[in-house]
Amino acid sequence: MENHNVEKRLQSLDNICKGTGTEKHLQPSGTSIHEKRGTDPPPQPEKVPLTKWNRPRINIWRTLTAFLAFFVLGAHDGAYGALIPYLEIYYHKNHLLIALIFIPASVGYIAASFLNSLIHITFGRRGAAVLGPGLRLIAYIVISQKCSYPGLVVCFCISAFGIALSDAAWNAWIGAMQNSNELLGILHSFYGLGATLSPLFATTMITKGGLKWYKFYYLMIGLSVAELAAGGMAFWTESGKKYRADNEKTTGKTSGHTREALRNRVTWICCFFLLVYSGTEVALGGWVVQFMKNVRHAAPFSAGMSATGYWLGLTVGRVALGFVTPRIGERRAILIYIALATAAHLIFWLVPNFFTSAVAVAFVGFFLGPLFPAAVVAATKILPPHLHVGSIGFSAAFGMTGAAILPFAVGAIAQVRGVSVLMPIVLSMLIVDACIWCTLPGIRKGDSDDQMENAAV
Which of 299, 426, 300, 425 minimizes the C-alpha distance to 361? Predict the structure, then answer.
């Protein structure tokens, strides 16, 4: 009787195992559950080998060209803070009207966010390497010829389109490489280096050399010519045909692209995170000189140097913390960096001393520095490879609209409340950015070089 009961219990246990799928553990070695059931295993996503920055050797030249491009982008954005006081004098405009130059720029950023994937499909990376600096070159030539205020607004719109193209293209390309955290940290450090040097040159040219503000754009013309020549030669073989062929190998179809990327929630999380981040970064760098002059009562040259310190901190942070981020994980690292940037910003705001403020704002830049590259790396780990250009390119270009909207908002409110409104606005944006980042899907440990499609669904 007892043996009969034992047999019944074993039979029941066997039935349960079959019903719950645990039979796979009981299969003989070399026999899968799919073979026993006569079904085909689900298709596994093809793992695409990651690009190396130094293989093939032409990639070394291309990577250096991308670094040069980001140096020029940084020089463009960094000059705002040093030039705004002189734009107000030259055009006889107040804070609000000068801040309007940022709004048309958002049109260029948005247009680039939607056209970036199409440009890659049609012209390849060669198109981004030529169109980006080419459009900025046209804008800088017009600005350097003492254009009218409406002409200045149009030129900033054109240059913004070129900036967004370059920004999206090289973020997506380098973000999908091996050692992407370190490489993106170096890439964005060149942006910071350009943003560090441009206010230094602009301030020195105007306050020490007695030159007009528009003479600074002769320097930007030279840099854009160098970028155009280097990028055109390095990426000349990266045509639209080659891009479509490579994309076809990756996905099995020539897809894209922006439409598919826009259906992915990771794209929109990155969009709004980068929008708030870019707005915070450029608003602080753009208005810190006016804040130091009007609130901390600094001399013009000293106020200009505070902008240099901010961008220098951002540059150092991108290099130094770019090697720390992969060791603690992008998700956790970004939250830590935002918390530390917030602490430094509170010191900058609440301690009414110029030298303390100058040091504190440099530390704000230091901890803000790695946020953009770390966000791009996190996105490449979650998104499938065929969405990198469409999704990351769209996010980077769309996110740049924050660099237009938030600085304008600061200028508009400063016209009524004074430039001290910069402080609470930046603080609130840091908090908002941390909240947005917390909604990003998790990144599985141990998959630093594999794209994780399941988390992006």
Answer: 426
**Segment (H or E) for 183:** helix 180-203
Do 392 and 379 form a contact (C-beta atoms < 8 A)?
A: yes
The vertex-111 CA angle with 105 and 114, nearest 5°, equals 145
**Residue 247: its pLDDT value, please?**
67
Dig out the tokens for 345 from the structure. Answer: 């910003």
Tokens for 406?
């938030």
Largest CA distance in the chain: 108
Distance between CA 432 and CA 377 in Å, rounded?
Answer: 21
**453, 300 contact by CB (below 8 A):** no
| Burial bucket for residue 154 (CB in 10 Å: 0-12, 13-18, 19+) | middle
Helix (H) or strand (E) holding 418: none
pTM (2 decimals)?
Answer: 0.73
Q: Which residues in the chain show pLDDT less than 70?
A: 1-49, 247-258, 389, 442-457
- Model confidence over 248-257: pLDDT tens digits? 644 444 344 5
Closest listed residue to residue 85, CA positions, set 341, 414, 352: 414
* C-beta contacts of 18-25 below 8 A and 24+ residues apart: none
Q: What residues have CB less than 8 Å from 239, skipping those under 6 apart?
A: 123, 124, 126
Q: Report how far apart, in Å, the C-alpha atoms of 181 and of each of 30, 105, 128, 376, 440 are.
A: 39, 29, 22, 9, 18
* 318-334 pLDDT tens trace: 888 888 988 899 899 99
Distance CA 256, CA 429 (A): 32
- The per-residue DSSP string of 31-42 comes to --HHHHHT-PPP
Helical spans, DSSP H, in 204-299:
216-234, 240-251, 258-262, 265-294
∠ CA 352-353-355, rounded to 5°: 150
Q: What is the dihedral of CA 132, 134, 140, 143, to 10 degrees?
A: -110
**CB under 8 Å, gap of 24 or more: what pairs does 432-436 form?**
432/276, 433/273, 433/276, 433/277, 433/280, 433/338, 433/371, 434/335, 434/338, 434/339, 436/269, 436/272, 436/273, 436/276
User: Residue 258 has what pLDDT?
Assistant: 62
- DSSP secondary structure letter of residue 383: S
